Amino acid sequence: GVDGIALDEGYMLLPSPTEMVILCDYDSAGWMAHAQEMVRALKAGKGELSPTSAVGKMLDTVRTGAVAWGASTGNDAMIKEPMFAAFPQRTRRATRDGQKLAFTIAGKGKNAEAIKATQDALTDAIKAELTDLQGDKWVPDSELGPAVALFRSMKVEAAGDHGALTGTVPADITRTFIQ
After folding, report:
1. Most buried residue among 33, 37, 71, 125 by CB atoms closer than 10 A?
2. 10 Å Cβ neighbour count for 169?
């Protein structure tokens, strides 16, 4: 079998002790359908995604041998969000940097004005999260340190029709979010 955990806006599948698949969608019916499809593909050892589909072509650009990787196409609700509007399709990859993970989330857009607005919205969201974390008086700084380090490491860059969010996940961050 494939173990799974329901999240607020998605579903996490744990097909093995070393693998995790996270499926996200604003619509719970959507992520449940995706989760069921993924479970079928994991059990069969292959999926039914056409290599010529938009997502199939996007997967060709992802280094699937990376420690962590992903590809996504935003649904109608996500594409309306300022932080995602310019990049309806995004790829993710992470590489190990000692005990840390260095990550990149990249997208290609068409409209320079929308790309700039997305860059500004992401930068503002990162700053707001840092302010919230640093102002949290209920949690000791020693426990928030890894989360603060994560958000401090995040950088949003845009050039031409490409944009990227980069950062480093500290080794001890899971302790921060799981406690």
Report:
1. 71
2. 19
**Tokens read off for 28:** 């719970």
pTM: 0.70
On the CB side of 1, CA atoms within 13 Å amount to 2
Q: What is the distance between the alpha carbons of residues 20 and 124, in angstroms, rounded to a whole number?
A: 30
Closest CA to 105 of 115, 118, 92: 92
Q: How far apart are CA 117 and CA 125, in angstroms?
A: 12
Cβ of 72: how many Cβ atoms within 10 Å?
Answer: 20
- For residues 29 and 25, give the distance between their C-alpha atoms in angstroms, rounded to a whole number: 9
Task: Give pLDDT tens digits for 3-39.
Answer: 677 776 667 777 777 777 777 665 666 666 777 777 7
Looking up tokens 């310019």, which residue turns up? 86
Q: Name, in order, each residue with C-beta under 8 angstroms of 175's C-beta and a sequence gap of 6 or more.
A: 143, 146
Helix (H, G, I), strand (E, B) or coil at 151: helix
Q: How far apart are CA 53 and CA 14, in angstroms?
A: 26
- 11 forms bridges with which residues in the sheet? 6, 23
Determine how many CB atoms are found less than 10 A away from the CB of residue 52. 7
